[in-house]
Amino acid sequence: MTDAELSEAEKTFILHSVQDNFREDGRGNEDFRHMEVETGLISNTNGSARVRLANTDVLVGVKVQLTAVDPEKPEVGRLDFFIDCSANATPAFEGRGGEDLGSEISAMLTRAYSCPSAVDFHSLCVLPGQQCWLLYVDVLLLECGGNLFDAVSIAVKAALFNLKIPNVTMTKDEGGVELDLSDDPFDFKRLNVAGAPVVVTVNKIGHKHVVDASEKEEECTLARIILGVTEKGTITSMRKEGSGSLDSDSISEMMESARKVGMELNKILLKALEEEEKQGAKTVGFLR
Amino acid sequence: MAGMELLSDQGFRMDGRKPNELRRIRFKKGVFRQADGSAYLEQGNTKVLAAVYGPHEIRGSRGKALHDKLLINCQYSMATFSTQDRKRRPRGDRKAQEMTSHLKQTFDAVVLTELYPKVQLDIFVEVLQSDGGNYCASVNAATLALMDAGIPMKDYVIACSGSHMRDTPIVDMNHLEESSGGAEVIMAILPRCDQIVFLEMNSRLHEDHLSGVMDHVMVGCKDIFNILNQQVQDELCQKTELDKIVTTG
Amino acid sequence: MSVDIRLASSRPAGTDLYHGENPGNIVTPGDVITADSGFMRGHGTYMEDECLHASVAGTVERVNKLISVRPLKTRYNGEIGDVVIGRIRELAQKRWKVETHSRMDSVLMLSSVNLPGGELRRRSEEDEKMMRHYLKEGDLISAEVQNVMSDGCLSLHTRSLKYGKLGQGCLVCISPSLVLRRKTHFHNLPIGASIILGNNGFIWISPTVQDKSEESGGYETNLQPIPKLDREVIARLRNCVLALAECKMLLFDTCILYAYEASLKYAVKDLLKPEVAVEVVDLVRQRLELEGS
């Protein structure tokens, strides 16, 4: 229902509120909005998660597939990101309308996960030099309420946490090695996501910057930087976006904010996911 | 097909249902804030989201506008992870396009389009998990989403599928039953006036059995209708209770 | 810095569904309302087989001989005299097109606005050239519905000093059916903020302005920073309105004030949390019930 275009006075109001470190909804500049996460809602996948960050709604499904290794990197598995901007989110995404945004987000995720320590890529290799797992990480964007990049990355990490990769048994015969996938749904291994990054977008508004911008605030932003941050505070990727320009001092300030918030996000996300696993509660999905 | 019997001697289907038994239906209206109407619906393991936008000004070229009635625009897509084997693209394939036009026809028949000349209504359906009866779940979810958006309709539209196995008509087929190669009858009806707005049959079915299957599918549709209508009414009652506090205060 | 990630399963399940009898005025599409031919067909109904049927899910309302059904949620159906908030979408010949969450863009004619100087006069070509100077794309206005055309398009006017361009403040969009129809939709709340409850579900919260300068016709906006105290009140009101709307409460000045008072024990940003929002709304509901009984 929110219209993208804002009046000059509304923009001024938002600009001043950011200067005051008291935003339109009462948050400080480094506060995230309330977020909900749930994993394992789609039984057709090997791992799935849904994140709802205020009105931003993201559903991620991960499917695994055995494939030939990349000859240049014969000892590691691969990740493949695909973002589908559903028309459910906004009619503007109908047909091919969401493709540009989708490829932008998937490029950012690919970059953030290109760091070798992001996940244990070696454990995804089944038979070095021959077969490895290819993880199809498919993201479905269901509603847009600002800060898409961060919400998508959090949902991706949650889905990877939830991922169950079937165990493979190898039998050698003369022709080579035969691979057998386990049929038993309880015979699987998990992926260690401790090093996986989340994406933090820092928006420059006036002289200050904010994280987790609402749609209105994004409208007032001329420049932002998007970073991948791990739990330890390592920055795995970085990109500046938008038509405005930034000086290097403010970039380092923004990076500091992103690092701080990113570390916290990772920590709390992991805690929530482990809690969920312990509870083993029934999935709620979209029904509540 | 040893061990894969679609209907056992005791008269149970593979998932343990009786021939005329529906899968569990659960739904929620209004799952999104930004759409004018939305609904999420589960029929067994088939899970569908529908969103409705409008009626609003025609988007894109104004040439599409109909001077005497509402333009209904549909899009059917399936999440790439919704099927057993990953889909390469969520939409644009022939199946999705066929579904899109089926949905459009179905809802053209029931929305009171003449009330809204020159404007457009979008119905977007997204299949999150597919386990048979995708069209049926899509229609049922879209009906709820339209109701959530307050779009005037003649009646509910309810869809259900059915087939004939071992001399018994069965209703609400799951994926295994659909892919067994037997006949499949899909119907969408207006449950209160007994009108059929969509009918499709795949594979082959003996003429003598057709009316029997159709009757059972009709009954299946009405069962679905009763489930949906009961919850919709309950929600409305609850809201009126709530409003009373304000309006009498 | 605060980050709050919860599990979906921890969300409050919401109040139990109503399982009582249908009180009789609840209908869903296709229901027969009456077979009596003496009634007139209103919104949300249609005639077939000489029976009046419902076409939407909602409550039946009867005004004399007119029967209509009011759905829970819908796009805005304008009525003459309604107060609306709108956003300028497009400039055209002698008119502005305004987004009002109606099914079509509404129209504000150049001849339906007050021009600077105040006196009524013919609109000159000069004025036409100045249109973008008065109101441009993205600007927000408050206006009154002057007329509803046959195709449902609304024509607006701002020919009163209380209407016109809006300055600094916060717009909240909710469902139009949640705004209770009242004598006045403009409220200067005693807590230092003003609120306009547009019938179209657009709600405008702004600092109370003492003197609206008549010289410029209200087209000049004040871009000075607003004191933080006022800003806090506005943010709190915004979150209260959203909380009430989330719980599908009908909105009017009293219940918004009650919500504001009930929320005072929480920090403004805590109102974004669902359990706090639900608690505040519950307190409002109890207070209204107490007064109603």
Automatic annotation (TrEMBL), chain A:
InterPro entries per the UniProt record, alphabetical: ExoRNase_PH_dom1, ExoRNase_PH_dom2, ExoRNase_PH_dom2_sf, Exosome_comp_Rrp42_subfam, PNPase/RNase_PH_dom_sf, Ribosomal_Su5_D2-typ_SF
Q: What is its main location?
A: cytoplasm
Q: Which UniProt keywords apply?
A: Cytoplasm, Exosome
Q: Which domain of life is it from?
A: Eukaryota
- Record domain Exoribonuclease phosphorolytic: where: 31-166, 196-260
Localization annotation = Cytoplasm; Nucleus, Nucleolus
Query: SUPFAM superfamilies recorded for this chain?
Result: Ribonuclease PH domain 2-like (SSF55666), Ribosomal protein S5 domain 2-like (SSF54211)
Q: Which GO terms describe its molecular function?
A: mRNA 3'-UTR AU-rich region binding
What's a BP term from Gene Ontology annotated to this protein? U1 snRNA 3'-end processing
Q: Name one GO cellular component term.
A: nucleolus
Q: Which family does it belong to?
A: Belongs to the RNase PH family.
Q: What is this protein called?
A: Ribosomal RNA-processing protein 42
Which species is this UniProt entry from?
Elysia crispata
TrEMBL record, chain B:
A Pfam cross-reference name: RNase_PH
The source's superkingdom equals Eukaryota
Q: Which Gene3D superfamilies match?
A: GHMP Kinase, N-terminal domain
Boundaries of every Exoribonuclease phosphorolytic domain copy: 21-152
Keywords, A to Z, come to: Cytoplasm, Exosome
Location in or out of the cell: Cytoplasm; Nucleus, Nucleolus
The cellular component terms of Gene Ontology attached to this UniProt record, alphabetical and capped at eight, are:
cytoplasmic exosome (RNase complex); nuclear exosome (RNase complex); nucleolus
Q: Name one GO molecular function term.
A: RNA binding
Q: Which InterPro entries match?
A: ExoRNase_PH_dom1 (IPR001247), ExoRNase_PH_dom2_sf (IPR036345), PNPase/RNase_PH_dom_sf (IPR027408), Ribosomal_Su5_D2-typ_SF (IPR020568), RNase_PH (IPR050080)
Q: Name one GO biological process term.
A: nuclear mRNA surveillance
- Where is the secretion signal located? none
The record describes its quaternary structure and partners as: Component of the RNA exosome complex.
Describe its function: Non-catalytic component of the RNA exosome complex which has 3'->5' exoribonuclease activity and participates in a multitude of cellular RNA processing and degradation events.
Which family does the similarity line name? Belongs to the RNase PH family.
What is the protein name given in its UniProt record? Putative exosome complex component RRP41
Q: Which organism is it from?
A: Elysia crispata (lettuce slug)
Automatic annotation (TrEMBL), chain C:
Q: Which InterPro entries does this UniProt record tie to the protein?
A: Exosome_cplx_N_dom, Exosome_RNA_bind1/RRP40/RRP4, KH_dom_type_1, KH_dom_type_1_sf, NA-bd_OB-fold, S1_RRP4
User: Gene Ontology cellular component?
Assistant: cytoplasmic exosome (RNase complex); nuclear exosome (RNase complex); nucleolus
Name the UniProt key words of this record, in alphabetical order: Cytoplasm, Exosome, Nucleus, Phosphoprotein, RNA-binding, rRNA processing
> Could you tell me what this protein is called?
Exosome complex component RRP4
Q: Which residues form the RRP4 S1 domain?
A: 75-147
State its location(s): Cytoplasm; Nucleus, Nucleolus
Q: Mainly localized where?
A: cytoplasm
